[in-house]
């Protein structure tokens, strides 16, 4: 005698489609990858609003190291890709600046730049003075925070700096500045602009320095080596030493040095500029 087997009932047939989801498991992350840290940092550790439309905030995004872009005495800059693998439209390559700590002998000029600043914890300040291993870690963290704060302030002032995406410990993610060819923008020192572009570059820097001094600030280490030439526009980088013009006893010396560095480079390329005149113009707007 044959026995009929009834098929299993479809338990989802009466469900509203809005409550039916497809779940896809991610593969294990490869070497040099991590989950996006955007949501793991505090809100104040994320970039200012309004945020650019290229920013990737997806919780499912993956960060992939693409290699070293630039090495320096205090920090190294890497390229980092942040992409949501299930939404390819959410993808961006950023610059990841990572300050070194313990093993690297750096920050040898820190005292002149940080005059007028205060530490949040006395224990950290004592460690810095002793130059212990912990003190060097504190120094790396403090300089990362200083640059993060400077980037946010400069961006809010409308200055030509990379957009600050986020800070996580001693790592700052920021906009990757590229040229018209999509590659990393060269330093100003590496360029040979024609007379018209040269004059435009100088005017951009003069306006940026004017905005800084009107806000009581000085870059403190401005030179053609920490200015990027992205086609017809410039971008100022390396801001951890941003100086309080009045609060730092050497603030005016730093301003004059910035003027000298900039004017010397432009004068050597045929533009008639004078560091003393630029310094005088900036001082006239400083108060």
From TrEMBL:
It is an enzyme of class 2 (transferase). Keywords: ATP-binding, Kinase, Magnesium, Metal-binding, Nucleotide-binding, Serine/threonine-protein kinase, Transferase. GO terms for molecular function: ATP binding; metal ion binding; protein serine/threonine kinase activity. Pfam families: RIO1 (PF01163). It catalyses: L-threonyl-[protein] + ATP = O-phospho-L-threonyl-[protein] + ADP + H(+); L-seryl-[protein] + ATP = O-phospho-L-seryl-[protein] + ADP + H(+). Residues 30-284 form the RIO kinase domain. InterPro entries: Kinase-like_dom_sf (IPR011009), RIO-type_Ser/Thr_kinase (IPR051272), RIO_dom (IPR018934), RIO_kinase (IPR000687). Transmembrane segments: none annotated. Its EC number is 2.7.11.1. PANTHER family: SERINE/THREONINE-PROTEIN KINASE RIO1. Belongs to the protein kinase superfamily. RIO-type Ser/Thr kinase family. This is non-specific serine/threonine protein kinase. It comes from Nocardioides simplex (Arthrobacter simplex).
